[in-house]
Amino acid sequence: MKYAKVDTPNVEGFARSSGSGETHAEGIIDAQGVEIIPPLTSILIDDITGSTALVRNGREHLFVDLSNGTIDTNLFATEKGYQYAEPFRCNRAIVEVDDRWFYIDTIGNALFGETYDFAETFHHDRAMVKEGERYRIIDTAGNTVARMPYDQVNPYTATRWQVTNIRGDDYMSGFVDLDGKEVVPLIYTEIGMWQPEVKRSRAVIKEKVGYLDEFGNVAIPIQYAYAEIFDKGKARVMLNGREFFIDPEGKEVVE
User: Fold this and answer.
1) Taking a C-beta distance cutoff of 8 angstroms, is the pair 94, 103 a contact?
2) What is the pTM of this model?
3) What's the whole-number average pLDDT of the chain?
4) pLDDT (tens digit, 9 = 90+) per residue, 210-222?
5) What is the DSSP string of 154-206?
6) Is the dihedral of CA 120, 122, 127, 129 positive or negative?
């Protein structure tokens, strides 16, 4: 069959395929070009990790084993999925059922004997979970690595979480590492989204703006009266009443 598009195969040889024609359809082929899941308009292929696909079927998410050849598509009409799911990482996947989050292993068994108000995907054998107003870091066995006494905890990069305490109208943020150790004190009044393409994030201390690196360290001094996020490799800033553009190293560049 001719496909409109075939993604780059993963290490197991599986690739997402898109059917030809005006109607969007997605499926999966193996390394020999055999259709494991034929292109269907009723599903979306969110991820293929190893020989497991995460498939969105309407409002449900299913993990599908691709290792046994062609899938009977009746599966998508009969198999109940999860309210939400993310791909397997560290042989664990986070799923949501009835607004509760928990982890499963690669054969679908629930892990750790507990559920959470919120949880994130494992990375580097660590994940952040939340129950009530309490955050903590767990390892892949479900053990608590660290409790985080902060009002807010958010992913930043693969090795850092952004942590924030709220005091009245003041939001003060810093960073902890994968073991919950505070590696950057809570001195920032604002930290923007991480921009992986330039490896920088915008940060503010008392109305002065600069940029941080992937570890939360200052990469471009917190000195500007005004600074934008990076766009196409440069950012507009203002220093001493003068506006100009800088690159991710903080060097001035032409507009």
Assistant:
1) yes
2) 0.88
3) 95
4) 999 999 999 999 9
5) EEEETTEEEEEEEETTEEEEEEE-TT--EEEEEEESEE---BTTTTBEEEEET
6) positive
